[in-house]
Design brief:
The chain is of the alpha+beta class and 110 residues long. It is built from 1 helix and 6 strands, in the order E-E-E-E-E-E-H. It starts with 6 loop residues before the first strand and ends with a helix.
Length: 110
């Protein structure tokens, strides 16, 4: 099943330092068409770093609570761990994500 950047998925997201995973929403960053998808963690916790993006239209995106995307918490997940597609970020929120990601990638590429 292919996904597009900006899609929000419910999946088994691995927890840092643990061998277990937790069902949580995640934002698709990249799907190259193979068995994996690159995602960023979505949380209901408030924004705490410059790499966090608050989702302004969380209801329009298919989420059940106000949420923040943690762009520095990225994982490559097997598509078989995707439970379902929740929705999609609206245009202003997608723009906000890219406005953080692009400079972040440029900075790390140096």
């Amino acid at each position: 099943m292919p996904f597009d950047p900006g899609d929000l998925l419910l999946l088994a997201f691995p927890l840092t330092g643990q061998t277990v995973a937790r069902q949580r929403p995640a934002l698709v960053l990249l799907d190259t068409g193979d068995e994996d998808v690159v995602v960023a963690r979505v949380t209901t916790q408030p924004c705490s770093t410059r790499f966090d993006v608050v989702i302004s239209d969380w209801q329009g995106a298919g989420l059940i609570a106000p949420s923040t995307i943690r762009l520095h918490k990225v994982a490559t997940i097997e598509k078989r761990l995707v439970k379902r597609r929740l929705g999609r970020l609206q245009d202003p929120d997608r723009s906000a994500v890219w406005s953080v990601l692009v400079p972040m990638w440029r900075q790390t590429a140096k």
